[in-house]
Write a structure and sequence with these properties.
This protein is of the alpha/beta class. It has a single domain, classed as Glutaredoxin, CATH 3.40.30. Helices cover 44% and strands 23% of the residues. It has 7 helices and 5 strands, in the order ααβαβαβαββαα. The protein has a 5-stranded mixed β-sheet. α4 links the parallel β2 and β3.
Length: 126
């Protein structure tokens, strides 16, 4: 994802509606597994709606997703409400919030929210 730095750094801000549409929310394990098995690059944010750190990250995360989509960068950003779907959080080893999992051709990198950054430009470093 380090290659995304120049793309995110020099892209403009897009409308909030486009940002929100750029993040796919998964509600079932088969749906998420299908996206992972597609062998593309997928960054998944496991969050708790009441978590202040998650709330702080959500805006920049959706902004980063929109910037990637607008610039044709083949990385998809997704999210999972881990409180409503604890079985999905458990399946991916989520122990706290926010937790990011980066899937590249079925291989996963584990990141915690504290090291992931809190701005749209920092999300790219995941």
């Amino acid at each position: 994802m380090k290659l995304l730095w120049p793309v995110l750094l020099f892209t403009g801000v897009v409308a909030r509606g486009a940002e929100e549409a750029a993040v796919t929310q998964y509600r079932t394990e088969p749906g998420l597994r299908g996206a992972i098995d597609a062998k593309g690059d997928l960054l998944v944010l496991f969050f708790a709606p009441s978590c202040e750190h998650c709330k702080a990250l959500m805006g920049p995360y959706t902004e980063a997703a929109a910037r990637l989509a607008t610039n044709g960068v083949p990385v998809k950003l997704a999210k999972v409400d881990a409180v409503r779907h604890p079985e999905m959080a458990k399946a991916y080893g989520v122990a706290g919030y926010p937790t990011l999992r980066y899937f590249k051709e079925n291989e996963v990198q584990v990141m915690d929210g504290a090291s992931a950054g809190r701005t749209a430009d920092e999300v790219r470093a995941c």
